[in-house]
């Protein structure tokens, strides 16, 4: 599942080189669905799902995942200004959006989703190219 980011109100005035200023102000969560955890993805993401760089893995039911995601999206501002703006970042993000739809989470219907960012677009804009038409996670 994609990384859900909430960096609003962090006081980041510059993202800095490689986004380092922003990265220090982001919360990372890593959920694995119990209903899917026994599958091994050897084709698209080979490797060890326990060896990720961000967050601590939590195994959850589909309902727990949906409830958690919705609570993060609805994160309220400490200033009383309402729900914080949220940026959704994903690699091959259309797959992530399909998975969220399977959980009955529709980011398009949430008013405080300010951007859905595709990592493949970021690297293209930075002039980074993989061996094919799209860059892979590796």
Summary of the model, kept short:
The chain has 138 residues and is α/β, with parallel strands linked by helices.
Q: What do you see in this structure?
A:
The structure is a single chain. This protein has 138 residues and is an alpha/beta fold. It has one domain. 24% of the residues lie in helices and 16% in strands. It has a three-stranded mixed sheet with strand order 1-4-5. Strands 2-3 form a two-stranded parallel sheet. The N terminus is likely disordered.
Structural class: alpha/beta
DSSP summary, beta strand count:
5
Mean pLDDT: 76
Helix content: 10-25%
Give the biggest beta sheet. 3 strands, mixed
- How many domains would you count in the coordinates? 1
Number of helices: 4
Instruction: State Rg.
Output: 16 Å
Molecular shape: globular
Task: Give the H and E element order.
Answer: EHEEHEHEH
Strand content: 15-25%
Low-confidence stretches: 1-10
Terminal CA distance reads 16 Å
Strand order of the largest sheet: 1-4-5
Write the layout of secondary structure elements.
Layout: E1 3-5, H1 20-23, E2 30-33, E3 57-60, H2 62-73, E4 86-90, H3 93-102, E5 113-118, H4 119-125
Parallel strand pairs: 2-3, 4-5
Antiparallel strand pairs: 1-4
């Amino acid at each position: 599942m994609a990384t859900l980011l909430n960096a609003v109100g962090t006081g980041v005035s510059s993202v800095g080189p490689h986004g380092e200023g922003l990265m220090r102000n982001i919360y990372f969560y890593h959920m694995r669905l119990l209903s899917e955890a026994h599958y091994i993805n050897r084709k698209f993401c080979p490797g060890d799902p326990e060896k990720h760089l961000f967050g601590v893995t939590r195994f959850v039911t589909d309902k727990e995942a949906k409830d958690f995601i919705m609570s993060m999206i609805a994160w309220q501002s400490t200033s009383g200004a309402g729900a914080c703006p949220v940026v959704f970042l994903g690699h091959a993000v259309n797959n992530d959006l399909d998975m969220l739809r399977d959980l009955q989470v529709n980011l398009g219907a949430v008013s405080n989703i300010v951007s859905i960012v595709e990592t493949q677009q970021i690297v293209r804009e930075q002039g980074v190219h993989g061996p094919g038409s799209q860059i892979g996670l590796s």
